[in-house]
Amino acid sequence: MKLFKALAAAALLQAAAILPVQAGENLAAIKSAGTIKIGTEGTYAPFTFHDKTGKLVGFDVEIGEAVAAKIGVKAQFIEGKWDGLIAGLDAKRYDAVINQVGITEARKQKYDFSEPYIASKAVLIVRDGNDDIKSFADLKGKKSAQSLSSNFGKIAQTAGAELVGTDGFDQSIQLVLTRRADATVNDSLSFLDFKKQKPDAPVKIVAEQSNADYSGIIIRKQEPELLEAINKALADIKADGTYQKIADTYFGQDVSK
Questions:
Q1: For 63, 66, 168, 231, which has the most beta carbons within 10 A of its beta carbon?
Q2: What is the mean pLDDT of the chain?
Q3: What topology is assigned to 122-211 in CATH?
């Protein structure tokens, strides 16, 4: 029995000694393979979607490719549905997920995030020429086009707006354009994408919330070397202008803060 206990204790010590090496082996494996596998939806424009030729494109796709290049490897994208995307990390289907994954305390309990690479804010959008609404407080008694279950809808309702239910951003903005609603509280990134596609659309942002929601590249825990490499790559693409070029392509401005 004493011999068994001694062997068991030795095994535990040996395992503990091996863990730090195992923790960093994925980055070495990625560099050896020359490829980092990235999980993404492929159906979420303008972040990750297929163009008319069928090619996978988007802001997140280009960020992933740029990060991979800085690490010294190529990006291999593996598409999946959102509801199982993060779980694919657990199954080791890929090394990271780049898909506008919001950095939350709940997710940080189980996974590690890179430094934020994109920020989204709630903004108040009205039609050009509407000078009655200049702040969220001005929504009181006004019609606001909103997805009723969204946080944006709750913001408008708290401000005293009368909600006009919609299926999402596209329908909300159309109601504002056709004057069937006075305003919409919505996502700043969605608005920037819309204006990039339709720069002459007569709508504008008149107010924005100061606090932002940030997204990051998400990986499994216990991979500190990979996390460090991703963070360095993000810093490098911001420093050399690559990030700004990608942001300009999809949003017309820096969206990192």
A1: 63
A2: 91
A3: D-Maltodextrin-Binding Protein; domain 2 (3.40.190)
What secondary structure, in 3-state letters, does the chain show? Answer: CHHHHHHHHHHHHHHHHHHHHHHCHHHHHHHHHCEEEEEECCCECCCEEECCCCCEECHHHHHHHHHHHHHCCEEEEEECCHHHHCHHHHCCCCCEECCCCECCHHHHCCEEECCCCEEECEEEEEECCCCCCCCHHHHCCCEEEECCCCHHHHHHHHCCCEEEECCCHHHHHHHHHCCCCCEEEEEHHHHHHHHHHCCCCCEEEEEECCCCEEECCEEECCCHHHHHHHHHHHHHHHHCCHHHHHHHHHCCCCCCC
8 A C-beta contact, residue 101 and residue 41: no
Cα 110 to its chain centre, rounded Å, is: 17
The model's pLDDT over 121-174, given as tens digits with 9 standing for 90+, comes to 999 999 999 999 999 999 999 999 999 888 899 999 999 999 999 999 999 999
Sole residue written with tokens 């008319």: 52
pLDDT in tens, 197-246: 999 999 999 999 999 999 999 999 999 999 999 999 999 999 999 999 99
User: C-alpha angle with apex 200: 194 to 202, nearest 5 degrees?
Assistant: 85
Hey, what are 190's tokens? 């969605």
Q: What is the CA radius of gyration of the chain?
A: 23
The number of residues making up the chain comes to 257
Q: For 180, how many CA atoms within 13 A lie in the half-sphere containing its CB?
A: 11
Domain ranges of the chain: 2-119+214-250, 122-211
